[in-house]
Each structure stands twice: as structure tokens, then as C-alpha cells.
């Protein structure tokens, strides 16, 4: 009997997908195991470079914190791989599709929105135990969690309302574009998606972030004068310096830039200002300005925008291929099903890119550090980093291979050594 070309393409594609999914699971899990082994093996001694600034107790706390988070992450990636397999080859997506067909016409916009929203809700439930364990067990055990169950529930309700208010109409527009714009729909979807992202960046600081945190103008006049001096030196225009009540949820400290154009502002977590002195705050801010000066966000966008266009064009082609649907356990061939399948299986195909993106990010961190060393003193940034490593219980001894694959920031020892070499 001659093989049916569609079904043999489908089983070939299914085999490729499962192989890559399992490969990514094996690679990630073995890197995480290496990380745990490497960190715990170095638990009894503070690295030479940090011997004077970090106590053995802090170092051991960082090792235990790293190992605890790694173990949780390992079970999380295994569960999420299982979830993807159940939805695709296990026929889960098709079952959701059939269930909604009782209420809405299959292939229509309402049906598609219901299908994709159900997937979102299911994904949220699968993720929930891990979020709860992370927040209320691990973060709590290491003294970072400030979140109460009540605040967690309030956050969840606000997030769900926001997702429904923005996400459902967004899905409806996307599905409408794919139906109304002919064979080049993916170009329209891309343009719409890009504009939506820019809009979110524009309104985030003023409309969305304040739903979750309180932002107050930086009141410390001495620090404000220092920061404004630095901004003037670096030629950076900002619409304000704000302090965010990050301490409501967590003891971890941070600082960031947000928005663009007229909504651009600088936000310090209150937890960061509590820990660092004025010199150190200035150095951390100079590092952030380094990202701005080197146009790192624009460079990232310049790569991600064409990459997402290429992915959408690929989806535009896959949607015409019967083997794509049947290979992934779906009899339905509508656009919403295609979108769901595509984004469920995509990570298995793109995981080899992770180390490339991590490498690129680490290059940017080194560039921002070098800029900070020019504008302020490298020693101040080193002092700030050491305090942050200590207080955030970040490991000083990551496994080199793990770090190369996953870490967006260079390992502590390399980063500090590089900064010290820049010290005049
Ligand atoms: Zn940075």
C-alpha cells in the first residue's frame, strides 16, 4: 500500500517535534543539575575575590537559594513539556476545540477567542503551584517574600481583569485580521502586533504600573541633585525620577528605565535605595544609562522585529500545510488552532538560540558597565554589585556552562574583575 504523503509528512513532523522537545528538556535539565552540583560543591568557601566583602554565611545562603530555585525550575520545565505534549499529540487542543464548538461556530472569531483564552487559563493553572511554591515557600524561607496571600489574590484578580480587558479584544482583532486581509495577513498581524507593543510601552508607566505599585517622586534632595547631575552629564532627558514601593512584595532591589519619548522615567525600588549609598546609586544608574547610550533596546528591537516577521511568515505558510495540524494531533485546521499549535511547539525549535541571546545580553552588560566606569567610579559600581549579590543571594560561583547558556548577566567574578581592570 503506498504511503499517504500527508500522513507520512505529519508523522515525520511529529517525530521531529517530540525529539526536539525531549532534547531541550534533557539539555536544560542537565545544565541545571550541573549548576546545582557546581554551586553546592563550592558552598564551603567564599571565592578569593569576595573574601573580604561577603561572609561565609551569606555565601552559603546564596548556594542554598540557587539550588532550591533550580530544583523548582527543573520540575517546572518537565511539567510544562508534559502539558505541551498533552495539548498537541495528546489531543487536548482538539478536545477544547470540540467543547467550544457547542457554543460558537468553529473557525469563527468568538470560537477562536474562546479556544485561545481557555489555553491561557489552563497555562495559568499549570503554572500556579510553581508560583505559589516560589513565593510562599522558597522566597519566604530565604527572607525575600513580603507578599501576603491577600495581596497575591488581589494581584491575581487585577492581572486577570487586565488580561480580559486587553487580551480578549486583542485576540479578536488578530483573528479578524487573519480572516480579512487575504494571503498577506501575517504582514498585517505583524504591523498590528508591533504597534500594540509600542503602545503598551508608552502607556505602561502611567496607566498600568500604578495599578500594582505606588510611585512617588524621588524626595531625597541630595540624591536627586546627584542623579540630575549625572543625567545632564550623560545628555539624558527624563520626565521624572520615581521611587516604587517594591518592598510591598519582595526584598529584592532593582532600578529601571521605563516608557519612551514623553513617558520616559527612571524608577528606583525603595529596597534599592535602602541598601545603597548615593555613590552606589549613581553608579547603578550610570550602568542603566549605558544601556540607553549604546541603544541596546533599539538594537534588540532591530533584531526581534524582523525575527517575529519571519516567524509570522512561517506561520502563514504552515497554516496551509495539512501535516502541520495532523502531525500535532489536531483535526481542526482553523487559524486559532494554528496559532495555538505554533506557539506551543515553537520553544522546542528555538531553544538552541537561547545561548546566543544570552551571550548578546552579556556583551551589552559589559558595555553598560564600561560606560558606568567612565561616567562614575568603577569602584562604586563594584561596591553596589557586591551588596546586590549579597542581599539578593545571587551565587558567586555559577557553573560556567550553565551560565553561558542561560545567564543574561556575566558571572559575578568576571564582571567585577572587568570593572576593576577599568579602574584608572
Ligand atoms: Zn544591565
Secondary-structure element series = HHHHHHEHEEEHHHHHHHHH
Q: Note poorly predicted spans.
A: none
Give the spatial strand order of the biggest sheet.
1-2-4-3
Beta-strand proportion: under 5%
Helix content: over 70%
How far from one another are the termini?
78 Å
Rounded radius of gyration (Å): 24 Å
Rough outline: globular
How would you state the average pLDDT, rounded?
Answer: 92
Strands, total number: 4
Bound heterogens, unique:
zinc ion
List the total number of helices: 16
Structural class: mainly alpha
Biggest sheet descriptor: 4 strands, mixed
List the helices and strands and how they pair.
Blueprint: H1 5-41, H2 56-87, H3 92-101, H4 109-141, H5 149-180, H6 185-208, E1 215-217, H7 221-234, E2 241-244, E3 255-258, E4 265-269, H8 270-275, H9 278-293, H10 296-318, H11 322-327, H12 335-350, H13 354-375, H14 378-391, H15 400-406, H16 412-422
Parallel strand pairs: 2-4
Antiparallel strand pairs: 1-2, 3-4
Helix pairs in contact: 1-2, 1-12, 1-15, 2-4, 3-4, 4-5, 4-12, 5-6, 6-10, 7-9, 9-13, 9-14, 13-16, 14-16
Bound molecules: zinc ion.
Zinc ion binds at residues 287, 291, 365, 368.
Amino acid at each position: 500500500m503506498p504511503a499517504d504523503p500527508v500522513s507520512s509528512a505529519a508523522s515525520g513532523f511529529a517525530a521531529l517535534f517530540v525529539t526536539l522537545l525531549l532534547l531541550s528538556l534533557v539539555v536544560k535539565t542537565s545544565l541545571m543539575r550541573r549548576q546545582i552540583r557546581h554551586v553546592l560543591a563550592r558552598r564551603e568557601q567564599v571565592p578569593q575575590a569576595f573574601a573580604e566583602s561577603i561572609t561565609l554565611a551569606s555565601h552559603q545562603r546564596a548556594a542554598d537559594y540557587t539550588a532550591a530555585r533550580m530544583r523548582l525550575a527543573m520540575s517546572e520545565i518537565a511539567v510544562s513539556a508534559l502539558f505541551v505534549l498533552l495539548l498537541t499529540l495528546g489531543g487536548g487542543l482538539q478536545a477544547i476545540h470540540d467543547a467550544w464548538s457547542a457554543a460558537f461556530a468553529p473557525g469563527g472569531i468568538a470560537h477562536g477567542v474562546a479556544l485561545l483564552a481557555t489555553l491561557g487559563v489552563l497555562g495559568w493553572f499549570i503554572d500556579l503551584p510553581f508560583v505559589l511554591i516560589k513565593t510562599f515557600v522558597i522566597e519566604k524561607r530565604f527572607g525575600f517574600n513580603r507578599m501576603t496571600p491577600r495581596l497575591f489574590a488581589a494581584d491575581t484578580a487585577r492581572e486577570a481583569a487586565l488580561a480580559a480587558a486587553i487580551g480578549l479584544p486583542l485576540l479578536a482583532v488578530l483573528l479578524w485580521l487573519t480572516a480579512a486581509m487575504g494571503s498577506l495577513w501575517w504582514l498585517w498581524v505583524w504591523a498590528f502586533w508591533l504597534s500594540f507593543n509600542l503602545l503598551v510601552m508608552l502607556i505602561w508607566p502611567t496607566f498600568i504600573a500604578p495599578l500594582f505599585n505606588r510611585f512617588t517622586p524621588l524626595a531625597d534632595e541630595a540624591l536627586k541633585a546627584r542623579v540630575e547631575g549625572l543625567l545632564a552629564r550623560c545628555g539624558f532627558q527624563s520626565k521624572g525620577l520615581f521611587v516604587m514601593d517594591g518592598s510591598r512584595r519582595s526584598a529584592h532591589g532593582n532600578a529601571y528605565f521605563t516608557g519612551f519619548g514623553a513617558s520616559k522615567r527612571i524608577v528606583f525600588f525603595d529596597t534599592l535605595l535602602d541598601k545603597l549609598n548615593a555613590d552606589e546609586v549613581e553608579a547603578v544608574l550610570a550602568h542603566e544609562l549605558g544601556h540607553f547610550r549604546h541603544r541596546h533596546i533599539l538594537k534588540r528591537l532591530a533584531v526581534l522585529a524582523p525575527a517575529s516577521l519571519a516567524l509570522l511568515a512561517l506561520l502563514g505558510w504552515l497554516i496551509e500545510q495539512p501535516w502541520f495540524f495532523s502531525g500535532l494531533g489536531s483535526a481542526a485546521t482553523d487559524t486559532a488552532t494554528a496559532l495555538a499549535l505554533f506557539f506551543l511547539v515553537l520553544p522546542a525549535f528555538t531553544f538552541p538560540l537561547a545561548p546566543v541571546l544570552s551571550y548578546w545580553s552579556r556583551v551589552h552588560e559589559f558595555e553598560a558597565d564600561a560606560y558606568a566606569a567612565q561616567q562614575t567610579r568603577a569602584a562604586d559600581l563594584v561596591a553596589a554589585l557586591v551588596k546586590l549579590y549579597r542581599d539578593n543571594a545571587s551565587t558567586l560561583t555559577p557553573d560556567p556552562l550553565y551560565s553561558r547558556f542561560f545567564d543574561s548577566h556575566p558571572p559575578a567574578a568576571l564582571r567585577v574583575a572587568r570593572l576593576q581592570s577599568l579602574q584608572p
